[in-house]
Amino acid sequence: MTEPSPASQPPAPAVFPVHKRRLRLLGLTVEDCIRAFFGGNALISVVVLGLITFFLVREGAGFLGQNRGNLSIYRLAGLEYVDHLRRQAEDHTALTRYLSDLRLRSLNALTGPGGMELEAANARLAAFDAFAAGFGDAADPLRGLVSELSEVAAAIKTRHLVNEDKKEERRQLLAERKLEEAAAVVITEMDFAAELRPVRDSLPAYRAVNRDLAARLGTLLADPPRLAAPELQPRVDRFTALARDFLAGFPAIERDLEAWDHTRQVSAGEAFSAFVFGREWLTASFWQDWYGIVPLLTGSFLVALVALGLAVPLGVGAAVYVNQIASAREQRLIKPGIEFISAFPSVVLGFFGIAVLGQALRALSQQPWLAWMPGFPYSERLNILTAGCLLALIAVPTIFTLAEDALNNVPRALKEASLALGASRLQTTVRIIVPASLSGIISAVLLGLGRVIGETMVVLLCAGNRIAIPDFTPGLGFIVEPVHTMTGIIAQEMGEVVRGSIHYRALFMVGLVLFVLSLSINYAAQHIVRRYRLPSS
What's the predicted TM-score (pTM) here? Predict the structure, then answer.
């Protein structure tokens, strides 16, 4: 019997690895699994982004209603009325501080090198001291009236808050069906019109105080002091102008007090604008809590501005040098060195800023040969400049890496064509390569901005944490003033707030603003890349 030929034998069953046979049974290929894996990662990213957005909106949504109630109590209790007078007294105090600064400058000018003795200088300033004393004492009746009305308004607010606490206690007892205990909770309804009568009836007394204050200050300003140092006279003229503006505002304050109505409802728009345009972030105050994001937003942008001012030239310049000029040996040394910076924990950089950089910059500012720089010398070692320098260090690797990628994506033909036409390497880099990759470089800068805007530990440790809008009158000198940032306020206060309170929800509103801002920056970066991408890249 002959053996069957190989062609006539039945084909052997296909042999697949175990995992491939299982995939085949499921009707999937390896390519399908890879596509599902990476597509699933993208889906998870979208889901996580949606959950974060939902969580921030859910936790922050109640803020506007709570802030509306907060402002309503501010109006009902008469605190808003008293604050008109308080601001007037604070403006007068600011002018008094201006005089104190003038006095100190005059004394330093008189007792400087080759000047007179301290006793003689004080005698020379006797007329100025008499003017300053008269100016400061003129507002004593106003301060007394403010103190008296503040006690009345604060007492009204306290009684109202006690009533609200009792109402909440009664609601909880009723929910627990403790009817006898709920009935024992005594709530005294308040008649705000009657409670506010002492405040409203103070208007004639305030008018009399205003007239007396205007007369005394007008008499003083009719003969302003003359200083021995001629270079200080412009400051005296500036003070006189500010004081006259202060006096000119008295009629407007009286009109506001006359038109004030405690029954006027606080709208949702007022509650929203108080947060978006508010210039104060003040919590746990016996008087009134304010949740305004402007000082935090300003602090974040100023620190980011200083950081980008340092990081963009360094990051982009390093990318251009490494990509176009450096040798292979230099590239192997520079690229890992710059990228290694991102391995430093931000908290370590913050400690470095507190212990080393802040002190070093402050000592450097004391050098006489640097007195021409804006803001130098300064005393606050933790400020915008210190935090900005450290954030620049953090942003440099991001900007460097992305800018170099943009330079790599420029078609090689553009460079070769430029060199073939006789352009030098520098001309080719500056006029061809960099303009062709400009969209990618701008994207790198925007992503670097998003990186520094979202940084927390460095600004929390090194920015100074002063919740106030910096004084921009010295020009660029604002960079040595302490600020607080959106990320810093969240990290500092979130662990101390009561869940569900207005302070808690205000922090989530800040987080929502920060989240939207970061998304907008990243979207703008991606849009620029897509819009201006070279066709051959």
Answer: 0.84
